[in-house]
Amino acid sequence: MKRGKPTGPITQTGDTVGGLVAWAVRELTGATTSPLLDAELLIAFVTSQQRSSVLAFPERAVRTALGDEVERLVQRRARGEPLAYLVRGQEFYSLPLRVTPAVLIPRPETELLVDEALAHLPSGGTRAVLDLGTGSGAIALALKRERPTVNVTGADVSATVLAVARANAERLGLDVRFVESDWFAALAGERFDLIVCNPPYVASEDRAFEGLGYEPRLALDGGADGLGALRAVIGRAREHLNEAGLLLLEHGHDQRTALVELAGTLGWRVVATHADLAGHARMLVLAR
Q1: Model-level pTM?
Q2: What's the rounded Cα separation, in Å, for the pair 219 and 198?
Q3: Domain spanning 14-87: which superfamily?
């Protein structure tokens, strides 16, 4: 064991919760921005407890085998592996989603897309919505939870990714249709009232990839200038929108000007632009 003597009461069954927390915090300090939170969440995951239980009962004994598993996960976290992959979950729009290394971890700023989509979806309506590049199903499932009567489709190019999204939908009891499709390729003849998309938009040579080694590059890499996927979506979305339909796009903080120009050349009308909570340009709403 590398943990050494636990700081809590010694028990014959192994470590204590408090001892593991103290050890994990020491290991994670300097390696993550939230060592205490990460430690508590990892220990809660391994011991099948709520985080509140970890906080309330530091004296609780932890079997040696579970302590060893905590140690393995803490070491992986210290090497930079995302917490969401280690605990196999991430909350998005108050939904507890399962995530795997096959899918991009949902970001808080993407909740802005859900907020804007809901603003255009009246309660009780039966409109059709497409979440293009659905990943874990985060956006599609959040919309279905908030607007149960809306018909929601999630599309993604990867069958492995769609398996994660379908599992999330089944576990949450949300009726969303998922389609394997390279953007619009498998959706010929289908039209929607709203298309929502958070595409890859990081430029291939962006230094951001240096810190994103664990997440799927396919979900992030937008080509040489970061606009490849956005061009593909903007270029084809019109034929899949109903007459009064809208296209909602998340984009990079420095891409708004280029996208507005592109949209204009393709005959789109810019309905709105939005910034995220940090004040960065983040979303574009386009109309046919």
Answers
A1: 0.91
A2: 9
A3: Ubiquitin-associated (UBA) domain (1.10.8.10)
